[in-house]
Amino acid sequence: MKAQQIPVYGADSLKKHFEKKIKLLLDSKGALAGHYSIDLFGVSMFADPNARRQAEYRVNWSDLPLYKELMRRSSREEAIAIMKEKGEKPFSAAIQKAYGNAVVAPAQPLPGKPLAGLRIALDPGHVAGDLGMGKIEQKYIEFDAKDEKDPYPPQLVEGQLTWATTAILKKKLEEAGAIVMVTRGPGMTAFGKTFEQWKKDDYKRTLDSLRKIKGRTIPAHSDDRGIFRHVFRDAELRKRVEKINAFDPDYTIIIHYNVDETNVDWKKTTKKNYNMAFVGGSFQAGELNDPERRFDFLRLLLTDDLDRSIEFSGTVTQAFKEKLNVPLAKQTDAQYLKSSCLPTSREGVFARNLSQTRLVQGVLVYGETLYQDNETEWNLLRATDHQEGDLVTSKRVAQVAEAYYQAMLNAAAKQ
Predict the structure, then answer these.
(1) Domain count, the chain
(2) Chain Cα centroid distance, residue 125
């Protein structure tokens, strides 16, 4: 009972600190305030904002170091199960024994190996390895070829760009001593198979599972775009998250390329061009309606994951700015930045409640480099003027990989 507790030293400062963090990064408008409360003894999360008699999750300030260790050292599934079982009760003696002592073994840099021992997860966004798949996932640009002598194909496929960036970056990181895990291969999904193979092997089973989870009828789709959008996409993102969290990386780099949102259908070029990055946070109204999201809201609030991700992402966006000579976005530069994101303390870094920024644990950056449909970038990105081994891509893609690499070196030097 709270009446029997004595607030820990500095309880008032803790309360004010986390209230400020919520306001700045998680729920700026207070639209979700019914789902949480912060008092002099700790933080509570509630399933029903209109019936707050019993907390679904509760962390007392006295248990905060233990909670952070639990989040850091257990699997996501284990942590959710432990927190659900705990509820409002104190952590059990078994949990206190298992997670009560911090165990940290920092990586030791070696001469010529500045990233020695660091575990880095790379996630190349999307799955397309060709234009056909790019059209299914709606992540492509195709312009009319105006010059028959033009040596480069008149299209971009984002899945190809992200894979090429990842392949180059992986080589650089490993040469610097890092241990690297990549969530998918070229033209492949995180399931280790193509979309066509997944559709043949797993679509029906995945649809049946989704119906059970949702508790309602979900129609089957005969067209690839419908299957991709309504069944495959979320399942595949979950697989990426599962791989990343199981790898337990020191850093996760999620690689995407951007487009001008106002250049609808992307049939012409645009003058706009920005770099940006996302981290977790900025929950919107209605986005705490399930226990997993409430678990992650609490995790992002009480652990250092979000704070460290902002710092790392700021290092990445500065490298974008310097290496790519393209400005960093401000909140006024895109509608979604104004409507769904919150600015952070680092330039070009925004809190945004994307699936991966919420579900991936630890330090991450969700990079969005360049506008593919920019009048200059379009030609730079589609070139085939850079080769590394069997990989043929553009010098511009290699520059993006170099920007990520330099950011990783800078981040490791600060560690």
Answers:
(1) 2
(2) 10
